Amino acid sequence: MSNPQHDPSRLLRLSLGGNTGFSFLSGMAFVLASSPLALAIGWTTSWGLVALGVGLLGFSAGLGWLCSRETIPLAPAMVIVWCDAAWVAVTIPFVFMVEINRTGELAAIAFAYVVLAFSVLQYLGIRRIRAKSS
Fold it and tell me: How many domains is the chain partitioned into structurally?
């Protein structure tokens, strides 16, 4: 009987699963509470948060599909790592170029840190699988 603690895909599967849940919950919040959230960050309209929420819901669906595979395909998993890294990279100019208040700036940075953590954990999970298979 195999020990799940020694499964080389465990870290990747758990980090993708966490990313799935975070993306889904964030997407739902942005869609369902777009107006109060927009006001909280200093925006007068909520369409940007609705669009972001819909995008995150689609992203979470893809992540969920990826997590559900018996063997996680590494190429799509690496694409997720790069998508998460791009999110973090885009957050920096977003905070400076988009008119949001301090609450919005702090929220965007906090989200970027969470996404960065998922990206790093997913990358480490991919490396662990590759090391075990070589």
Answer: 1
The CA distance from 95 to 41, in Å, is 11
Tell me how far apart the alpha carbons of residues 87 and 81 are, in angstroms, rounded to a whole number. Answer: 10
Q: In terms of Cα–Cα distance, which of 10, 107, 21 is closest to 59?
A: 21
Neighbours of 25 (CB within 10 A): 12
Q: Tens digits of per-residue pLDDT, 100-133?
A: 999 999 999 999 999 999 999 999 999 999 998 8
> Is position 4 within any domain?
no
Asked if residue 2 belongs to a domain, the reply is: no
Q: Give the Cα separation of 95 and 16 in Å (integer).
A: 26
Interacting residues of 28 by C-beta distance below 8 A, sequence separation 6+: 53, 57
Axis crossing angle, helix 102-133 with helix 74-97, rounded to the nearest 10 = 160
The Cα–Cα gap between 8 and 21 comes to 22
Which amino acid, 54?
A: V
